[in-house]
Write a structure and sequence with these properties.
Helix content: 25-40%
Strand order of the largest sheet: 2-1-3-7-6
Number of helices: 5
Largest sheet: 5 strands, mixed
Shape: elongated
Distance between the termini: 38 Å
Length: about 180
């Protein structure tokens, strides 16, 4: 159901690698002996070429992003760091995906749009990978992220504590 599960650049396909290797060995073994070495060389060159073309071998910071990484401006990175700094270390938080790793050491961390026990919400408006009920895979949903942001922003239960470069932090109101 998700593109990363079939994308050869992601770890999700690692489980089939041993079977592909075995199939290659058994397939080459079926060839006449005089054709095995050239065929093995061809398979090796094909794998190397595909690795260079679609793989992460050429991923170099500042030149080509690795996997899910995206090019973020210094201002946006500073805004993300500022947002994380606003939220006290032990407080329960709900956050968009990109920020999640930076707050994951706390006891309660939820993925937007789930609030659970969250006392704080961090929203990166450029990161619309959202959790869905009943799914373990995040889905790209800019409409859902905007609806969540609007719901939190309009709610009297939440007040804005930070707003910079599309990164927002909300704190649960004491009157909630």
């Amino acid at each position: 159901d998700s593109a990363p599960t079939t994308d050869p650049r992601t770890h999700y396909i690692a489980a089939i690698v041993p079977f592909l290797m075995a199939a290659s060995v058994f397939g080459l073994a079926q060839l006449p002996r005089r054709h095995r070495v050239p065929a093995a060389g061809f398979v090796l060159m094909l794998c190397l070429g595909l690795s260079l073309l679609v793989g992460q071998l050429l991923a170099v910071p500042g030149i080509k992003a690795l996997g899910y990484q995206s090019e973020l401006s210094t201002a946006h990175i500073d805004a993300l760091r500022g947002a994380v700094a606003v939220v006290p270390d032990e407080e329960p938080v709900s956050t968009t995906n990109r920020v999640g790793a930076h707050v994951s050491a706390r006891r309660y961390v939820y993925s937007v749009p789930f609030l659970g026990r969250a006392e704080w919400v961090i929203i990166d408006t450029s990161d619309a990978l959202l959790a869905k009920t009943g799914s373990t895979i995040l889905e790209w949903d800019p409409v859902g992220l905007e609806a969540f942001r609007e719901r939190i922003q309009r709610s009297s239960s939440w007040r804005k504590a930070f707003d910079r470069d599309g990164v927002l932090v909300f704190r649960k109101s004491s009157r909630a």
